[in-house]
Design a protein that fits this description.
Distance between the termini: 14 Å
Number of domains: 2
CATH superfamily of the largest domain: ATPase, nucleotide binding domain
Order of helices and strands: EEEHEEHEEEHHHHEHEH
Number of helices: 8
Strand order of the largest sheet: 3-2-1-4-5
CATH topology of the largest domain: Nucleotidyltransferase, domain 5
Shape: globular
Largest sheet: 5 strands, mixed
Radius of gyration: 19 Å
């Protein structure tokens, strides 16, 4: 049996997926990224390799592709491919019916349109501001003195929404702290935060060609409050993926590795 790897070195988390030659996931890892992207990739690869009995090191993989902001730093990688292409492919192999993605990473937000073969049809990206990214949500959760999972559910039962007017992460955090200090309902403040991010995703979704449905990838895809807010703003269904949405970049890289590796062998 031959094995193929994808390593997604992100700004916040590093993910690794190993596929067998039939496209089955045999190992997956999600680790908090280190300052050094080489170390992040090496640790994730080692953790994933340890899950497969017949593999001893990344060098045993038939083909390995790096992706993410640190894609050039993945040890033993045969090549690297942009995370935009890898997220598209990852979603395609998970659910071929999905044709539009909003990928919310640690430092940017992307809207991606998927073609029929899993390649990128069109995309748009906001990497100029941290508002609406994973870093933004970490700051908001800290302001509420909550974990990210706790914060993601806080807005679900809010009866009203308190608008958040600041567009900058720093100013938004200050605004939220002021509202909490005034004794405003925390669930309604959280609803305002989710709505503000959903509105920022609106342009990305339209550029991604979203019409009837869209899916979310990245760690923020696990944010239930955001999914509800996006459905409200975009008036379309958010499709939940059966495979962990945070793994989509690594999965897409592994699938590209499988395709390229099998073609090379044959």
């Amino acid at each position: 049996m031959k094995y193929f790897g994808g390593c997604d070195v992100g700004s916040t988390y590093t993910k690794c997926v190993i596929l067998d030659e039939n496209g089955n996931i045999v190992a997956n890892v999600t680790n908090r990224s280190k300052i050094n992207p080489v170390a992040s990739a090496q640790i994730a690869l080692n953790d994933a390799i340890a899950q497969v009995d017949s593999l001893n090191s990344a060098e045993d993989l038939t083909y390995l592709i790096g992706t993410g902001y640190g894609r050039n730093k993945v040890p033993f990688a045969d090549e690297n491919i942009s995370e935009i292409s890898c997220h598209a492919m990852g979603v395609h192999v998970t659910n071929p019916e999905v044709k539009a993605i909003i990928d919310i990473g640690g430092q940017d937000v992307k809207g991606i349109s998927i073609d029929t073969d899993g390649t990128v049809k069109n995309f748009a990206m906001n990497d100029k501001c941290a508002a609406g990214t994973g870093r933004f949500y970490e700051a908001m959760a800290n302001a509420f003195e909550m974990t990210l999972p706790e914060f993601s559910k806080l807005s679900l039962n809010a009866k009203n929404t308190i608008p958040i007017t600041a567009q900058c992460t720093v100013f938004a955090e200050s605004e939220v702290i002021s509202l909490v200090g005034e004794g405003k309902p925390m669930d309604e403040i959280a609803a305002g935060i989710q709505l503000a991010v959903a509105k920022r995703c609106f342009v990305m979704a339209k550029k991604a060609g979203a019409t009837n449905s869209i899916t979310l990838t990245g760690g923020c895809a696990k944010n239930d409050g955001l999914k509800k807010a996006i459905e409200k703003v975009l008036k379309i269904k958010v499709v939940e993926l059966k495979t962990d949405p945070q793994l989509m970049g690594a999965l897409g890289a592994a699938e590209y590795a499988r395709q390229k590796g099998l073609a090379k062998v044959n």
